[in-house]
Q: What sequence folds into this?
């Protein structure tokens, strides 16, 4: 039983006192930012990157991963109690969760969300443990041409599955690829686009871009729109444990949500947001009486909440096996790995089995901690929701600034982050979603390197991408995906699906 | 010429301009000293200009397509060029820039408090006394967590030799 041995190895790493502690810190921080609207995991993970420098790589990654899936738990609390999504992935939970709260069933909704998430998280952890090794083995057979095509597929899938305009998202990715090339070219030693600034010769840090585009620009946007009155249900939270009938009603939606979420999480470009939306739509389609949805249906909480948690976890699969991020947060995790001297890719599993399996085991530990801790702590999270944004945003701002500075002790990075804050704000104002840019940024240098190697091996023949079977398959898949979205009939349906 | 969808049009123009910038810097313009360009190389031996040049071209084309669509399309009232709220933009980003410039000279305690104070002015109901207190609390918290707790090398005090060597807490 290889799997069993591996899991034992993983738990022996994850269950050391220190790693449990960092997992706990990550989960608590994740829940905190998940609860608070206006700050997401991208900004938080980049803020905390420098704080993990003192930790061993395993502990650092365990903590950062905890922030990510902890945020999915926290997001639902805000959605249910305030009718505001704490995270994008809990937008649909607002629909029925808030209605349940208004009917005095807030405790039940929170309980179902937490238990559903725990179930989904446990299943997804097992899936990672089962799927990752064969995928990593397959990935070891990949040549440079195959890798290049795989990245093309990943980027195109990210565009297709995201909502909004396809062509704008492709543009955003290409811009990200270009920004990723800023700095010294490893092959020729030429400092590209550095304008003689010493800070740019090493290239831009992913933290600088992420904090500018997702931290600063969000703050400005929140300030300009002002704060609406929040109606927080603080008093009537009791009876967190659902009764037998609730469980029966929520069981199948939870299972379906978990399956759907896990599948969509693995896909490049998938992730918690897509998972929760699709699970909600599916439940509504399957329901005998769809009109109950939007009026406090328990299925409408159970399915999307388990789906987003499952997807948050399975999106680690492409990261850990192929070294390719499937969403912007995973792009940041790659950045974190590189800072800690770990080259992401299929070799992690064999070269650093303790890190690989330790991280996987910690996810289950983290999910367990989240259920045990969060249900009793809900009162505290609710109090936090009453903190005014006027006190919150200066805190976020100073943490971001210190975070940007500390990544390489460079004041220039703080100025660059401000610049990216303005760029990000402009993009949002023009209705161009900036998130795909981060994916491109991480993949830019990798794509160039693989393209260079592939063409070098083929003596400049571009046909190499079409003669290698793996590469050809991946490119055909990309073409099909692209054709699907571009064809008008399906484009219309896709629009409808996202409308819901 | 009437632009049907102003947001799309300007978004496209922005992409095209950025794409063109990357493209022209990679390719270079003969005779212009600051635009010497990088070596293009051949497909078999890609130079540093090869990948960014083609990506820049793709971005330029995408931008042009979006802009042209923006001109032709009939957008609703939502498609008008958006209003930029300069007050929070300037105060928040200005405070950040100032923080970056003065951090090494005056130290994090002062720079952080100034950052919090100026940025707070970007809020609609700004009260100077609260912001001042908030700034003090936040810098103390950051000093405790980041400098003393996590041992990050952030200067706390002004860059004055005698102060930094004699006052113990400045050394973190």
A:
């Amino acid at each position: 039983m290889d799997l069993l041995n591996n899991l034992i190895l993983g738990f022996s790493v994850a269950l050391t006192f220190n790693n449990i502690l960092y997992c706990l810190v990550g989960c608590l921080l994740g829940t905190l930012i998940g609860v608070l609207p206006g700050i997401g995991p991208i900004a938080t993970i980049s803020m905390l990157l420098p704080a993990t420098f003192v930790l061993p790589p395993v502990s650092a990654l365990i903590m950062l991963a905890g922030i990510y899936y902890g945020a999915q738990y926290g997001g639902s609390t805000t959605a249910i109690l305030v009718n505001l999504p704490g995270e994008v992935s809990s937008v649909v939970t607002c629909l029925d969760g808030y209605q349940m709260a208004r009917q005095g069933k807030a405790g039940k909704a929170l309980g179902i969300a937490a238990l559903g998430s725990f179930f989904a998280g446990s299943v997804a952890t097992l899936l990672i443990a089962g799927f990752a090794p064969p995928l990593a083995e397959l990935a070891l057979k990949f040549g440079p041409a195959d890798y290049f095509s795989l990245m093309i597929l990943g980027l195109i899938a990210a565009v297709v599955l995201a909502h909004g305009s396809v062509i704008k998202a492709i543009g955003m990715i290409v811009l990200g690829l270009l920004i990723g090339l800023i700095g010294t070219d490893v092959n020729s030693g030429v400092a590209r686009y550095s304008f003689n600034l010493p800070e740019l010769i090493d290239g831009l840090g992913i933290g600088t871009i992420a904090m500018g585009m997702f931290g600063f620009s969000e703050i400005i946007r929140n300030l300009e729109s002002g704060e609406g009155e929040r109606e927080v249900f603080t008093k009537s939270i009791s009876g967190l444990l659902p009764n037998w009938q609730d469980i029966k009603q929520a069981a199948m939606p939870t299972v379906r949500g978990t399956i759907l979420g896990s599948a969509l999480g693995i896909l490049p470009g998938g992730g918690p947001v897509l998972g929760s939306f699709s699970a909600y739509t599916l439940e509504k389609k399957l329901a005998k009486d769809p009109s109950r949805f939007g009026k406090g249906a328990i299925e409408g909480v159970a399915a999307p909440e388990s789906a987003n948690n499952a997807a948050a976890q399975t999106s680690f699969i492409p990261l850990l096996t192929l070294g390719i991020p499937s969403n912007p947060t995973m792009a940041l995790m790659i950045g974190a790995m590189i800072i800690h001297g770990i080259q992401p890719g299929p070799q992690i599993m064999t070269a650093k089995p303790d890190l690989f399996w330790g991280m996987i085991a910690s996810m289950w530990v983290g999910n367990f901690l989240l259920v045990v801790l969060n249900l009793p702590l809900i009162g505290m999270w609710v109090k936090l929701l009453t903190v005014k944004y006027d006190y919150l945003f200066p805190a976020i701002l100073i943490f971001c600034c210190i975070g940007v500075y500390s990544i390489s002790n460079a004041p220039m990075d703080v100025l660059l982050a401000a610049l990216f804050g303005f760029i990000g704000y402009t993009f949002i104002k023009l209705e161009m979603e900036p998130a795909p840019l981060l994916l491109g940024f991480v993949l830019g240098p990798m794509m160039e390197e693989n393209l260079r190697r592939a063409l070098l091996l083929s003596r400049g023949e571009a046909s190499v991408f079409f003669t290698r079977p793996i590469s050809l398959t991946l490119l055909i898949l990309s073409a099909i995906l692209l054709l699907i979205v571009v064809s008008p009939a399906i484009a219309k349906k896709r629009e409808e699906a996202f409308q819901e | 010429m009437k632009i049907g969808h102003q947001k799309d049009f300007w978004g496209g123009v922005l992409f095209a301009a950025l794409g063109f910038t990357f493209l022209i810097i990679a390719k270079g313009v003969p005779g212009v000293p600051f635009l010497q360009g990088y070596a293009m190389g051949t497909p078999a031996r890609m130079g540093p200009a090869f990948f960014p040049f083609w990506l820049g071209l793709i971005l330029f084309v995408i931008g042009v397509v979006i802009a042209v669509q923006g001109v032709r399309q009939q957008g609703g009232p939502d498609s008008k060029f958006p209003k930029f709220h300069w007050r929070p933009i300037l105060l928040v980003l200005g405070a950040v820039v100032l923080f970056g410039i003065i951090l090494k000279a005056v130290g994090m305690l002062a720079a952080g408090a100034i950052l919090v104070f100026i940025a707070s002015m970007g809020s609609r109901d700004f009260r100077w006394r609260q912001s001042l207190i908030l700034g003090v609390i936040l810098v103390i918290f950051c000093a405790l967590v980041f400098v003393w707790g996590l041992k990050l090398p952030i200067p706390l005090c002004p860059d004055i030799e005698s102060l930094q060597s004699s006052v113990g807490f400045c050394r973190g």
